[in-house]
Specification:
alpha/beta; globular; four-stranded antiparallel β-sheet; 9 helices
């Protein structure tokens, strides 16, 4: 999560580049807009979240069942260094941390391959976000491209809610709503509500879930193909990817100063998936 409300000030990085970028252009754009490279999340915030996950705080498990497999904070750090590109030195406790933009684009390529498979099979795909302020339009554009390719975009049941609020669908993307506002959430409970609702209605579950946060984690834990996005201070999905519970996780800052900064990334993803 980003913004001055939690002590991190976003930095202007230039307007998004037009059209579909090459890999090199996208890497440059990710660094300039701080979607990757030197990101806004400080090192101490990253380590605090890794520690809380390791200590069993389920708010950081993102709908997954991690047991005691990740009870060592250093093991979590090692995975994050490998899959995200954060500093791998356990003695580095304060200051700037990083996301490797090459790892971001590598993961986009892997996600594109799974989207291409979904399009080829005209699969049922469910989209959801726990970070609507940053990623809603990334998911919306991907859903529109898959629908145009013949996929069924899953419509969620009506009347779903969790202890946090109502589970709704906006622009083909499932979100959590509370007090007429779209909410940020780590919880897997909204995805649980959707899957349970589909089962109660006798409808098939999705062939693929494209999401983030607990929506992606719970779907993967439930045995569905799940791909998504995660920030460098949100380790759970990367641990799940390392274990094969979630198929692909794209490392990025999930709430930079303008949602438009993600447009070139989305364009690259859809082009690589053959959906442009």
């Amino acid at each position: 999560m980003r913004g001055t409300r939690n002590g991190r000030c976003p930095t202007m990085g230039g307007m998004p580049i037009p059209g579909t970028p090459s890999r090199a252009q996208l890497v440059d754009h990710l660094v300039r807009t701080r979607i990757a490279g030197d990101v806004a999340t400080p090192r101490e915030n990253n380590l605090s979240h890794y520690r809380r996950l390791a200590n069993g705080d389920r708010n950081y498990w993102f709908g997954l069942e991690l047991g005691d497999r990740w009870a060592d904070e250093q093991d979590v750090l090692a995975v994050m260094a490998e899959r995200v590109g954060v500093n791998d030195d356990p003695e580095y406790r304060y200051g700037q941390d990083t996301i490797d933009p090459e790892l971001t684009v590598d993961a986009l390529d892997r996600m594109a391959a799974r989207l291409r498979k979904a399009a080829a099979g005209r699969q049922r795909v469910l989209f959801a976000t726990g970070h609507p302020g940053g990623l809603l339009d990334v998911h919306r554009a991907t859903a529109a491209a898959l629908r145009a390719a013949g996929c069924e975009i899953v419509v969620i049941p009506d009347g779903l809610q969790t202890s946090e609020g109502y589970v709704m669908q906006f622009a083909d993307v499932a979100v959590l709503e509370h007090g007429a506002t779209l909410w940020h959430t780590h919880s897997g409970e909204p995805m649980r509500a959707i899957l349970t609702g589909l089962e109660h209605e006798g409808r098939p579950l999705p062939d693929l879930v494209v999401a983030d946060h607990g929506w992606a984690g719970y779907a993967g834990q439930h045995g569905l193909d799940s791909v998504g996005y995660a920030d460098c201070n949100d380790p759970a999905l990367f641990l799940a990817e390392s274990e094969g519970t979630v198929q692909v996780v794209v490392p990025l800052d999930d709430h930079v100063i303008s949602p438009r900064y993600y447009d070139p990334m989305t364009a690259y993803l859809l082009a690589e998936a053959g959906l442009a």
